[in-house]
């Protein structure tokens, strides 16, 4: 197992190279037990995340290390406009980041409304490992990050600033999910030991109110993991996921015997029912992975896809989630 320091060095060295993985490099050195290890991640950027995660899972590393390393890839990519560096700002032009992480043993950490720090997921992990708390927000989260060696950086790229200035001309707030197929990244993994973990990180809804926090850093909403059952993560309009305690409900459905795909579908349909007067343009999608390595997803509307990597000869690949309605 890697020490944390070695791990951070490893992620820095490999994340760039892993953006376009060769399927032939995705081999598994450990012992295969059932359908594990396996990792699933939301949207097209899940592909690069899975590749980074598989480098760890394939060496017998932990699901926790894998999901953290995985989501750090889009966090660092300025072309991903909804996660980390390069993410679209709020209406005041500030990039504010939300993230959380959870392992198989009900340990979790989260940060919200974090500014100027490129890797909120790694700060969230430190909240989990180094503090008695589950969540730190805003200025306190930034102070905590700086005190632990994270660098202060301007996360607003020229492109995101230009888009924000264009938006300011009309200042019309209409959250639209699915644009250019990259949104919040949620990742779930099951390692060779059979341990589950999940991570979720986002810059949130573009042009949100300053101070708005979505579902992504909220354990139970954007992410939930029960090591005995399974894990789930969400993408889409955070307010709808918060109102319905989305990811926790997906895990409860699995606890009651549903498959991951069925569990996601049941909770998406509940969101449709409870939002019937606010359905226009509403998109929410869930992914779930159970303790046996079975996975699935479901979304309100078409267009939600996810990356899967496991120990089959299919390697790292994209799958489309089933959905209830077209746009
Ligand atoms: C949020 N759930 O802040 C996030 C945004 C998102 O796909 O997931 N977009 O509401």
From TrEMBL:
Residue numbers binding substrate: 212-215, 235-238
Coiled-coil blocks: none
Residues forming the catalytic site: 184
GO cellular component: cytoplasm
Organism superkingdom: Bacteria
InterPro entries in alphabetical order: Ntn_hydrolases_N, Peptidase_T2, TAT_signal
A single MF term (Gene Ontology): hydrolase activity, acting on carbon-nitrogen (but not peptide) bonds, in linear amides
A Pfam family per the record: Asparaginase_2
Marked site: Cleavage: 183-184
Protein name: Glycosylasparaginase
Organism: Flammeovirga pacifica
């Amino acid at each position: 197992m890697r020490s944390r320091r070695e791990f951070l060095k490893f992620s820095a060295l490999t994340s760039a190279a892993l953006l376009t993985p060769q399927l032939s490099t995705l081999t598994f050195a450990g012992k295969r037990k059932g359908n594990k290890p396996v990792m699933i991640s939301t949207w097209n950027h899940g592909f690069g995340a899975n590749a980074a995660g598989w480098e760890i899972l394939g060496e017998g590393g932990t699901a926790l290390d894998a999901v953290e390393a995985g989501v750090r890839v889009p966090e660092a990519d300025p072309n991903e406009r909804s996660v980390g560096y390069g993410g679209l700002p709020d209406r005041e032009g500030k990039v504010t980041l939300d993230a959380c992480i959870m392992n198989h043993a009900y340990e979790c950490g989260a940060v919200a409304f974090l500014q100027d720090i490129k890797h909120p997921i790694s700060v969230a992990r430190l909240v989990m490992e180094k503090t008695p708390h589950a969540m730190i927000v805003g200025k306190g989260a930034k102070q905590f990050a700086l005190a632990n060696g994270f660098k202060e950086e301007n996360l607003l790229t020229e492109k995101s600033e230009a888009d924000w200035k264009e938006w300011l001309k009309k200042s019309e707030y209409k959250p639209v999910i699915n644009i250019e197929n990259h949104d919040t990244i949620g990742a779930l993994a099951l390692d060779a030991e059979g341990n589950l973990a999940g991570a979720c990180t986002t810059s949130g809804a573009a042009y949100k109110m300053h101070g708005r926090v979505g579902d992504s850093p909220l354990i139970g909403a954007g992410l939930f993991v029960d090591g005995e059952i399974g894990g789930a993560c969400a993408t889409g309009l955070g307010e709808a996921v918060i109102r319905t305690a989305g990811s926790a409900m997906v895990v409860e459905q699995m606890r009651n015997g549903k498959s991951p795909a069925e569990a996601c579908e049941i909770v998406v349909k509940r969101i449709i029912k409870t939002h019937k007067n606010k359905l226009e343009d509403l998109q929410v999608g869930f992914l779930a992975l159970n303790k046996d390595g079975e996975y699935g997803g479901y979304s309100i509307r078409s267009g939600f896809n996810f990356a899967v990597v496991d120990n089959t000869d299919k390697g790292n690949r994209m799958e489309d989630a089933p959905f209830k309605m077209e746009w």
